[in-house]
Amino acid sequence: MKHYILIVLAIAFFGCKESKEETFKAEVLPYFNSADFTPEWKKGSHKIPQFSFTNQNGENITNNTYKDKIYVADFFFTTCPGICPKLTKNMGSLQEAYKNDDDIMLLSHSVMPWVDNVEKLKAYSLENSVNPEKWNLVTGDKDALYNIARYGYFADEDFAKTKDEDEFIHTENFILVDKQGYIRGVYNGTIALDVKRLRRHIEILKEEV
Question: Where does the record place the Thioredoxin domain (predicted)?
Answer without folding.
Answer: 42-207
